[in-house]
BolA-like protein 3 (Oreochromis niloticus), 115 residues
Amino acid sequence: MLACSRSLNSAVVSALRLLRSNQTAVTGQLQRPLSTQTDGEVRIAKILKEKFPAASSLKVVDISGGCGAMYEIHIESSEFKGKRTVQQHQLVNQALKDEIQNMHGLRIFTDVPKH
C-alpha cells in the first residue's frame, strides 16, 4: 500500500486527464481500456446497485492506477431527492463502510435525475 500511495498523486492526475478525454487509461506498463473494469470497481458497483436500486446512472473508477487505493464514484439516483449533498454522500459512505476501510481516498459525485 505504501508503494501505491507514493505514486497516487501522479496516478490520480493522469487518470483524471484520461477520463476527461475518454482515452485509454495507462496503469504502470499496461494499458486498459476504460470499458474494462477492475475487480474493485465491479465490487463497489455491485454494492451501490444493491443499496441504490433506483440509480439511473452509476460509474465507479479506480483512480489509483489500478491498485484499489482510491476510487471516484458518480451516482445519480431519485433516492437522493430532497437530501442535501452532504446527506447524499453520507448514504454512499454508509453503503461502502466496509470497503472504505481499505481505501486511501474516495471522491463522490451524486445527483438527482433531472426528469
Observations:
- Residues 2-111 form a domain with the GMP Synthetase; Chain A, domain 3 fold (CATH 3.30.300.90).
- The chain has one domain: 2-111.
- Residues 21-31 have pLDDT under 50 and may be disordered.
